[in-house]
Sequence to fold (347 residues):
Amino acid sequence: MAAFHSANAIFPVGYRASRIYWSTRHGNHRCRYLCSVEENEGQPEFVVRVIEQGYDDLVLTGASPKGVWDKILEPVADRRNESGTLKLFPVYLKGEDLFGFTVTAVTRIVESLPGVEACDRYTFRFGRNPLMELPLAINPSGSARSEPKACSHVKRPHTLSSTGIVSSKSMQTIGSVGVVEAPEEVIPKQFASVPFQYRRMKAEWKSNVYLARSRIQGLGLYAARDIESHTMVMEYIGTLIRNEVANRMEKMYESQNRGVYMFRLDSEHVVDATITGGPARYINHSCAPNCIAEAVSLERGDKIVISSCRNIQRGEELCYDYKFDLEDDQHKIPCHCGAVNCRKWMN
Fold:
């Protein structure tokens, strides 16, 4: 491990990152740089693949992030000087930054990888993230990609399927896309205004929950502390898109064999959490829920917020009622929540 870290960064083998940066051939053009870390005879090898339209890919390697990026920065600086554009000073640019190792989100994930405790020269910024402490999914064949895509695969309110799952409130579908619409619940206002509760939730949500294997289905979200009733726990975040865009994105995700997570905000808009979503998409269904999904109107627009509907103890799995429409027997989705009042079927 000694060679695979420095005082400022950890270099995990298999790391991949993409960056758009100035071209080495034209002073006023940009191109794509694919950065990766490989292992060569027990030492890290830093690789940058230069992808520029109209040219063959160029592969550069180096023994350090700075070493390989210096091969790029120097010709970039020369081309920009020749074209009279703003000068570039490579001496002030760090290879770790250009590889993305120092990006906050990347650092949090890397510091949660198994075995990072052996990086004795590295100065930790955050420490192990409890959201990353979860066992790996078990695939009978040994490979997730080789597993058959069953009809009952991850039947969440955000998972799209050809069954056209919709909410009991809206009675609407996006083509073949089944999504859940946030029910029009009213957030209690006994203690504070809705904007204040929302700002407080945004500041504290990471300390409210952690991700782990679920007894209900796949991964689930658990309470990291005791949560009082009528508390905003977290926001269901993602990219806000129109119905027409949701149709196209659903087809693209299906072609890539992705699990799809979408949540209808209103009759015209859908929150797509498939790529840019947060942990809230992992909250499972239960017939005896401890949370509800609420549409909250704020100055910056409507938000989907997961709030507790009763007191929740630390270590208890968070869940809410998906409220799927009733379907015929051919499209029934079994419920595994295990509640005393379980309806046996989710739709």
User: Anything to note?
Assistant: The radius of gyration is 24 Å.
